[in-house]
Amino acid sequence: MEKQEFFANLHYLPIAVFISLPTIFILTYVIAVLLGHVEAGFPYISDAATYAPESCIFSQTVNLIAILMFFMIYIRYSQVKECTSTFGSPASLPKWNHWALIFGLTSTAGLSIVANFQETSVIVVHLIGAVLCFGGGTAYFWTQAVCSFYLHPSGCSLRLAHLRTALSTFCTVCFFVILITGVLAHLAYKGTNPRKWYKEDGGWELHVASTVTEWLCAMAFCAYILTFTEEFRDIRISPPKVICNMPRLRSSNEALNESQDSAVIHDQMNPSTST
């Protein structure tokens, strides 16, 4: 019997997201400051990725990270689904797992939107993406925290479930702080370039509170993703099976052969037309 191959070492997936996401945030911030596109104070993450070339680097890299996050979210969904059938978990767990998948994919889509629609180009779409990213991500964390409690003790430790609950609470507080202080800061703003927000422009304290909270929330997101590392160590994924429709393939081949035979007969009967 042919040995079946498996995809292993999936615990590197959350580690890769945990390392790459803050790295690209910091890299674009450094480039933006060096090029004079933002002040070295407390800009939003998206402020530091508004102008080229840092916006190009940011969008391309974040799109790749979003793909990794998509796979991670689906793998986690499949893992909880498998645990549900194996350990005989409560009947409500599949519903929580289903909503977790929806919220996770929503957050991933929002992250990609934020990366590709800069606030100086399409501000409305950018803000929608930001709300989907942070709001959907926070909802995903809460649903995963609930799933973690349901999976205890067979599929998850109680300590890890409490940690995810704490991170979910922190992200929820950060989400509302970002929204409230961000709106109030822009209402009080009297400057001309929000990417270079000075104290005399008004709303400085609220602006700093909003931007710092956004960075803290992003770091908490990365920390939450890292919590899946140990659980992903025991996951193996078999390659997908490709099923070929043989009758349809035979019909296509027969039709192709008939067409070629007809062309040969036509050339033999009309030699003057051949070159």
Please supply descriptive tags for the structure shown above.
275 residues; mainly alpha; 2 domains; 70% helix; 0% strand; CWH43-like N-terminal domain-containing protein; transmembrane helix
Strand content of the residues, in percent? Answer: under 5%
Query: Oligomerization state of this entry?
Result: single chain
The number of distinct β-strands equals 0
Count of alpha/pi helices: 8
The count of domains is 2
Average pLDDT: 84
* Silhouette: globular
Distance from N terminus to C terminus (CA atoms, Å) equals 53 Å
The chain-level structural class is mainly alpha
The biggest beta sheet reads: none
Rg from Cα:
26 Å
Write the H/E string, N to C: HHHHHHHH
Low-confidence stretches: none
Approximate helicity band: 55-70%
